[in-house]
Amino acid sequence: MNESVAYLGPRGTFTYEAARSLFPEEGYQLVPCDSIPDVLTAVDQGEFLYGVVPVENAIEGSVTLTLDWLVHHVQVPITGELVYPIAQHLMIHPNQRELPLTEVKRILSHPQAVAQCSGFLREHLPNATITYVDSTADAARKVRDHADESWVAIGSSTAHQLYGLEMVAESIQDYHNNFTRFIAVGKSWTHPHSSWEHQKTSILVSLPSDYPGALHQVLQSFVKEKINLSRIESRPTKKKLGTYYFFIDIEEGNHPRMKKAIADVESWGCQVRQMGSYPCYDYRKIKGS
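Structure tokens predicted for Prephenate dehydratase:
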């Protein structure tokens, strides 16, 4: 029996594509959830062994809902990472294939997808109204179900195939280095077909309120051990204005030097929560496996 994987659905979203890459369907059953909190809560409560959610986009930045739920609401470890290319396509119902873009009345998509294509939309569809929906796949479904409307959807090539739409324009995102970082959470696992490229560790640091220069000392602890930090981001503690947690991604697995650096951070009075040490996969190798 295949093990179940929760992901931010429905089918046809970019999270679906990432989940299918990390957890191939011949060995796992992919189950869509309506929201990021639903995915993380289901894994935290043991309804699913694994979950996949987006955490960061190269253009729009961090997915703060994912970060805040990992901090405040669930205790699930990060167990894998996949940086996945995001190509946004413009799609229309086959009945409307001859419609000029200037006559399109409505654009449907997720807010992040619209933001990633804002330049293209201003130039080519200046007269269309934007309607935000829950996902890019939901946008494609609504266009499919309204054959007589002069609507278009922005979404993935998978959504285009699943919902039988016509491709109007491909890769309409404003920046072509558009990637999203997806994380797997839950039970430890290994990819059945692909080896990982490198390992990473994520931690959450709380600074002591009465220690000036504490963040500088935290960073120095890693400098001393010659450990590279690939990302640091603050999120409110939600306890007091001006107090923050710091997400830190470390380009190192569970290495003695990293353990020493974290021990040094804790010696300054900081609290450190281990979010996970995990493999990072290359989507090109997975796709070719």
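The chain has a mean pLDDT of 89.
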